[in-house]
Amino acid sequence: MIRWITAHQEYMEFIHAESSLRTRNFYIPYLQDPKGPAVGITISKKVAGAVKRNRLKRRVRAWIRAHGSILPQDLKMNIIARQGAAELSWPELSAQLGVLEKCE
Question: Would you give the distance in Å from CA 64 to the centre of its chain?
Fold first, then answer.
């Protein structure tokens, strides 16, 4: 079961992340976490307005729920959206988030 990161302190831990993945529209720092998989989502106002940011968050959460089995079971990650992420189609979003299975 995937745990969603909500606490500010947990988000601050990613400042010291030594490992990360990058795609054209996402930056994903990750840390080892023996408690199981945990995912946070960060989308700044620079990416889009409130309506598009919320839609992107819902789409990322839906992708995580559908593909949670490919996520490594011992990592905590923060999916940070970059400019242009809000305009991605579902296949493009899926392709970019598909790199999560490469986390070690």
Answer: 8
Q: What is the pLDDT of residue 47?
A: 94
Give the C-alpha separation, 5 to 18, whole Å. 19
This prediction's pTM: 0.92
Q: Is the dihedral of CA 60, 46, 50, 31 positive or negative?
A: positive
Side-chain-side CA neighbours of 71 within 13 Å: the count stands at 26
pLDDT at 1 over 90: no
Q: How many CA atoms lie within 13 A of 4 on its CB side?
A: 10
DSSP single-letter state for residue 11: H
Pairwise CA distance, residues 90 & 99, whole Å: 15
